[in-house]
Design a protein that fits this description.
The structure is a homodimer. With about 700 residues, chain A is of the alpha+beta class. Helices cover about 30% and strands about 20% of the residues of chain A. Chain A has helices at about 30-50, 55-60, 65-70, 75-110, 140-160, 165-180, 195-205, 205-220, 250-270, 270-285, 320-335, 340-355, 400-410; strands at about 15, 25, 370, 420, 425, 430-440, 445-450, 460-465, 470-475, 485-490, 495-500, 500-505, 515-520, 525-530, 540-545, 545-550, 565, 575, 605-610, 620-625, 635-640, 655, 660, 680, 685. In chain A, the strands form four sheets. In chain A, strands 3, 14, 15, 16, 17, 18, 19, 21, 22 and 23 form a ten-stranded antiparallel sheet that branches. In chain A, helix 1 (about 30-50) packs antiparallel against helix 13, helix 8 packs across helix 9 and helix 9 packs parallel to helix 11.
Chain lengths: ~700, ~700
Amino acid sequence: MTSSVLPVAPTRGRLRPLGLDEVRITGGFWARRRHTNATATLDHCRAWMDRVGWTGNFRAAVEGRIHRDRRGREFADSEVYKLLEAMAWEAANGGGTPLDEKITALTDLVAPAQDPDGYLSTAFGRPGQPARYSDLEEGHELYCQGHLVQAGVAQARARGEGELTKIAERAADHVCSTFGPGGVEAVCGHPQIESALVELARLTGRQRYLDQAALFVDRRGHGTLAEGEFGRAYFQDDLPVRSATVLRGHAVRALYLAAGAVDVAVENGDDDLLAAVVRQWEAAVARRTYITGGMGSHHRDESFGDDFTLPPDRAYSETCAGVASVMLGWRLLLATGESRFADLLERTLFNVVAACSAEDGRSFFYANTLHRRQRGVAPPADLDSPRADSGLRAPWFAVSCCPTNVARTLAQLPAYLATADDEGVQLHQYADADIATSLPGGHGVALRVRTDYPSGGTVTVRIGRSPARSWTLSLRVPAWTAGATAWLVETEGVRRPVAPGTATVTRVFRPGDEIRLELPVAPRWIGADPRVDAVRGTVAVQRGPLVYCAESVDLPDGHDVDALRVDPSVAPQDGPGGPVTDTPGTDTVTTITTITTTTTTTVVVAGEIAVPTGQGDAAWPYEPLGRPAPRPTTPAGIVLVPYYSWANRGPSTMRVWLPTTAEARPEGPDGDGDGDVDVDVDGNVDRDSGTDTGR
Amino acid sequence: MTSSVLPVAPTRGRLRPLGLDEVRITGGFWARRRHTNATATLDHCRAWMDRVGWTGNFRAAVEGRIHRDRRGREFADSEVYKLLEAMAWEAANGGGTPLDEKITALTDLVAPAQDPDGYLSTAFGRPGQPARYSDLEEGHELYCQGHLVQAGVAQARARGEGELTKIAERAADHVCSTFGPGGVEAVCGHPQIESALVELARLTGRQRYLDQAALFVDRRGHGTLAEGEFGRAYFQDDLPVRSATVLRGHAVRALYLAAGAVDVAVENGDDDLLAAVVRQWEAAVARRTYITGGMGSHHRDESFGDDFTLPPDRAYSETCAGVASVMLGWRLLLATGESRFADLLERTLFNVVAACSAEDGRSFFYANTLHRRQRGVAPPADLDSPRADSGLRAPWFAVSCCPTNVARTLAQLPAYLATADDEGVQLHQYADADIATSLPGGHGVALRVRTDYPSGGTVTVRIGRSPARSWTLSLRVPAWTAGATAWLVETEGVRRPVAPGTATVTRVFRPGDEIRLELPVAPRWIGADPRVDAVRGTVAVQRGPLVYCAESVDLPDGHDVDALRVDPSVAPQDGPGGPVTDTPGTDTVTTITTITTTTTTTVVVAGEIAVPTGQGDAAWPYEPLGRPAPRPTTPAGIVLVPYYSWANRGPSTMRVWLPTTAEARPEGPDGDGDGDVDVDVDGNVDRDSGTDTGR
């Protein structure tokens, strides 16, 4: 059996993805978020799009008043399509008929706005509007139609072909006719159409769509887009995909393009193209990624920025870049089978995607800062918010790409947990899940995964069904376990240490067999490469895959996160509440209706808190070394909480990277230049003659 | 005698400014820059404005084709006016007739575009254009007309009233009629009109202009501007000027508004308003200013950002914010007489304003980063550049406010050196200068200041003319001398230590008397308040008022600034070349035609350079403490150059804040959570039980 209920369905590659009909998440961390997504976020997004007029745009287009009445930015259509995609996957998860009806209702709104030739946009092409494709740099027409295609594919795979699929195919045909060989030689300023067309090719078997996607990928980097204020790198139009060595420019655009390029490379067996994307991913991960997995440090152009330019207090780390990084990582994992891609995917899911939504699924972070110095102001409940204010989550944004992007990701999530190949089944992400698939020859395999991950580190895989022949169960051992020890228990009482990468068990399994992975989730201090200048002299805490942070609501009254110093010579410990076992899962997500917010696992670290001094205590913050005296401190155990959970308890200040107690202004000589210490340009330093008194 | 050749001419206040006819800069650091400004930059700006069509806009407006042919952003007119202002001051400096002719030519271009009612804009109000004042948030109409008024005032003061002055008065009358009592209750999104109107009131004695300026100041902060993507704080329209506690929002807008508010406060004797601005200045200087004096860390909205959010690698520090800070500081100095304002003014002049222009005065920095990790790419010689790329100076920008702003500041500069009051003369900034003014009663005073400042610290003031009665010569002792010792020599052989602030000599001076100030300019290590997180674990070097930096062109081949570590226990020393005496000045600026670029005073510090590793040496830059091992280093003397001089020797990397040799990844416990170290939430840490092996 090969599932068709797949967000990404490559016809080639190292691993075969499992579909939403093969993997069900039944409880725990992600089940709670998926439940909230299904029961709150989807309707929330629809209601807001009605309120701000983005759904109404389709009606206005049909009624000939769009030039006057259009609402939202050029790309507002895409939010409707992303919501449709999310609904389709959620319907496959068990959301069923009620969601089908919502999909139909929304599709009925969209359908009449499609032009006879397949073109669909509410922002261009009608009387009083700019001409079609007159602003390829920022018009987002292909981007929007790409999301439309993706939604149509999702409907076909999740619920069977329907009206939305037909709309999508007509749009794709229009795109191919317009931009294909002999047509307009151009690309869209915002990539997205590429992966959508490949997916449609996979769905329909039509070569035309794949060829068009390949053409778009190869066409990029030749300067067909006008050089705007941010330069051509902003659109990745500065260098051909095959020549680039690192992800650059607008982070979401860069990652969407890379994902599309992988899709093309896989279908065409284009190893050079795949290698180019892997190289770019490696460089971005090594030098342009926050500890959370967040990408993009520039607010101005939403771009990656130079290597190691990763200031926590100016982190942009857009939620959508996190979603796009998951898209890219998943494709690279399927293509190569390498666990490093699943490692970053896990990090990004827990620390970017999960951080986006509030506990109630009705407000969102667009940017995900790693250091908040000033308490946020509650965003208006009834107005859309600017996207980059990151003090508190907002119910909606003027540019509201992130809520629907997270919604479709959470709806797809079960598909990212496991894969299969000719040898067996691979588990990449850990959650309570029931998996049923078949190995070559039609041999059915069923697994039940139970875990308290990420609070706890024990993952138990119970075999429910297995062929009588030998096969291999693979389990990812996360890279974050390096330096601690992970254990694999095949037979009770026998533990074998397993290194980061992949642990495998090959044997004839019998129903009832249990394999247990024990991951060392105890909290640990993490330091940064010294080239990440902005976090010099600080440390962070990671517990399993979760990055932690200090939040002011956990500090004594009147103290703030900037007053904290931590002592990295003392290991961090689990804090009050301790590891909690998540609410036991039930069989299907849709029956989980009694989920409550469980206690968060906190961490406590040794440190000290400086006495509050108020602000403005020095007239000028730069002084000769040794002045002024450090503020007095009191020792303290400092409670940290998972980064994803911050800002759920009212306005607060927060920091991920914590200064150490060793940190103090270095003592220096008085610098009066009286020559008592010698240094020359050849590097000879005569320290013996130094008799400085220090001020 | 009271000069009228004054950029700022308050009728009240603690100090009386001296005019361009009273103070002449005759040689040294600023004479060179002023010479370059007069002989290269002014013509460069005119040529570029012709090339990019900004001057042509006025002709297009008159010829009825502006709706089709207009070039540049909404505020392009203002560049023409700022150039006119710069030319007027430069003409007063001795540029004389040739500049007068250029002023006339440019004025003749502008004049016909003025509407009969005084309104002047090439961007609004004509057929096919948006209506007048239809976009107060971003239209910049009052901002542009403010610069026009300023230019008209400059012409009147520098060369006598002329056509430009009349145009300015008509524009100001239009503004008052339109926005005065009973008129449109609004303000401009970009302040500037406020200080211009006050200056015109000072010139003409007409109360109407002052009242209108006061009205604009009081009207701001009541939300008359639409809340855009960046919120109302962007325009300082979130809070009334009197209520705000810190400068915030767009840095240039905030500083221009503050300058205008000081002007209004001074003329109206409005001490509350003055105190409010002083309070905002204090808070911004204590918590929102780079060591260079640069203000504004956000690229996205060009704003200040939160307290202590000052990442060097994302410093925006717009040149125009530096100019605006000089404008504000000078007004506060005149109003209060407090040396702290002159201190920041000096820092900003040397480290922001002087950093903007290349040595040849034909390319400029718009943003002034404090850390450049990637070598810049040479900007196009024949195209305008994006404003925020800060790797190399560019000849012109799409938004080109900075070149003309620096040009008018350099042209005005002699007026910022000294003031007078009933007691005597005050010297605030040190440069070779000849000063001739008169004290009350018409007693003439002439001073000749000679110095090698800032390379050297000796300032000699020779009395040329003096009344027979006692008076007071005041000399600013810069705040940066704190902790070292400055000396005042009144009589050869007798040195008296003087503290930061103001040193005074009160006596009956005779021609030929010399007073000498000896400032300790030896280089010193500077540390930052720990709340400036982004520079934790680093130190900077300041030498006199100059901030220094490491630039890759001074490192051995193959090494980069990110490989540097410095040892702050060893005092920095003057480097190769040593302090240089600037080219001896001559009597007037215009006769200085043989200035050559003199050797820069370098500084050498002890440190080490890490062995180059190439990039991408780690797959992931965040690791448990203690891993990986630090890169091997070799001891070295590291040459630093003044920050203002960087990027004059081709593409380079650069950093102001230098990591110390003490910096290394802190060792930590292994964090395996086996409980060998205890810490609890009450702050009790039991270190004795810790037996970690340190892994």
